[in-house]
Amino acid sequence: MHPTHEHPLPAPSSDGATPRTAPATSAASPTSTTAPPVATTDPPVRPEPPSPATRDRLWGLGSAAGVVVGSVGPWVTWGPISIGGLRVDGAITVVLGAVLLALIALRRWPIVTLAVGAVTALIGCADTIDVSSTAAILDPSPGWGVLLTAASGLSVTAWAARTVVRHRAVRRATVPSDA
């Protein structure tokens, strides 16, 4: 019987996993050859999920981005004809969406963010109702842009309200009371 030969470990591969080499096994007879070592790799390491604070911030940023995207989309459609948001109130909501993105990215003034989000949601919802209640020959309908603006405005308002409540709860917990 031949003694077992151990091979040194090779360098890590390009994907970051460190390959391992299985030791060669001894042959049953002196005339047989030993099999070459078999390289295996460790399973990839999964990244940590984002923290709750990061998920919250992504919710706010995604909602504000939805306001901007919806503002430039079609707001009114009549069959094959559509009117873009920038020709109507979308010009206002695109500016409000940019302000929301800046406020959320800078993590400043959550009450101002709440107010701007509420105004954006009000404009989107009011325009959706206006288009839906208009009677015309071609029966206009709200486009995806105004619907996205209204939904994103409501979402960013909910996010900002939650943020204001959390900030106040943290402030109450950290400020000593006069007892």
Structure described in brief:
The protein has four helices and five strands, in the order E-E-H-E-E-H-H-E-H.
Task: Write the SSE topology.
Blueprint: E1 19-21, E2 39-41, H1 52-72, E3 74-78, E4 81-84, H2 90-106, H3 110-133, E5 141-142, H4 144-174
Helix pairs in contact: 1-2, 1-4, 2-3, 3-4
* Helix/strand order: EEHEEHHEH
How big is the Rg?
30 Å
Helix content: 40-55%
Number of strands: 5
- Please give the count of helices: 4
Biggest sheet overview = 3 strands, antiparallel
Choose one word for the global shape: flat
Description of the structure:
The chain is mainly alpha-helical and 179 residues long. The chain has a domain of 123 residues. It has four helices and five strands. Helix 1 packs antiparallel against helix 4, helix 2 runs antiparallel to helix 3 and helix 3 packs antiparallel against helix 4. The model has no long low-confidence stretch (mean pLDDT 82).
Keywords:
single chain; 179 residues; mainly alpha; two-stranded antiparallel sheet
